[in-house]
Amino acid sequence: MTDRQSSKPRPGALWRAARWLAIGLLVFLAGIVLVFTTTPGGWLIALTLNRLGSGPAQSVDIDRIDGLLSGSTRIGHIMLSDAEGEPWLLLKGIRIDWTPLTLLRSGLAIDDLTIETVELAKLPEGEESEEESTPFQLPVAFDIKRFTAPDILLGEPVAGRLARFEARGSAQVDGTMSTALADLVVKRTDGVGGELVVDADYLEAEDRFNVSAKLSEPAGGVMAHLLNLPPEDAISLSATSQGSLADWRLNAAGTINGEIIAEASLQMVAGEAGNAVSLQANGMFDRFLPPSIGQLVAGRSDIVLEGLIEPEQNGAVIDVFTLSSSELTAEGRGRVAREGNVDLTASVTPQPNAGMLEFGTGASPTRVAVPAVTVRVTGNADEAAIRLEASTPEVYGAEFSADALSAVLDFDRFSLADRSGTGTIAVRANAIGSSNDIVARAMAGGVSVNGGVAVDQGEVITSDRIGIESGVASVEAEALSVNMSGALAASLSGQMRNLVLSEQAAGILGPETRFTADVARDEGGALTVQNFELASEFAEASGGVALGADGEIEGDVAAELSRLAGAGADVSGGLSLTASVSGTVSAPAFEASLTGRQLKLQGRDLSDLVLAAKGVADPAAPQADITLSGALEGRPVNGSLLVSQTGGVVRIDPLRLQVADNLISGALVLDDGYRPTGKIELDLKDIGSLSALALQDIKGSAGGSISFKVRGSESVADIQLGVPELSGEAFILRNARLAGTVEDVMGTPKPTGTLEVREVSAGGTDVSNLVAGFSQDGGWTTVEAKAQAADLPISLAARVRPGETETELEIETANTVWKGLAINLSEPARVVVREGTAEIERLVISPGGGRVSITGTAGQALDLDIALAGLPLTSVNAVAPGAGLSGALSGTVSVAGTASAPVVRYNLDASDVRAAAASAVADVPLAINASGEFQSDRVTFDARGSGSGLSFTASGGLDTTGTQAISARISGSIPFSLLSGAIAKQGVALTGAAQADIAIDGSVGAPQISGTITTSDSRLVDGRTGIAIDNLSAEIGLAPDQASIRSLSGELSSGGTISGSGTVGLDAGANYPADLALKVSRGRYADGQMVATRFDADLTLTGPLTQLPKLGGTVMLDETTITVPDTLPSSISRLDVTHRNAPADIQSQAARLSGDEGSGASTGIALDVRVQASRIFIRGRGMDVELGGSLRLTGSTGAPVAAGGFDLVRGRLSVLGQRLDFTRGRLGFAGSVVPILDLAASSQSGSTTVTVLITGPANAPEFSFTSSPELPEDEVLAQLVFGRSLSSLSPLQIAQLAEAAGQLTGAVKGGGLVEQLRRATGVDDIDLRTDEETGDTSLGVGKYLNDRTYFGIESGSSAGSGKARIDLDIGSGIKLRGEASSGGETKGGIFFEREY
Question: What is the pTM of this model?
Answer without folding.
Answer: 0.49
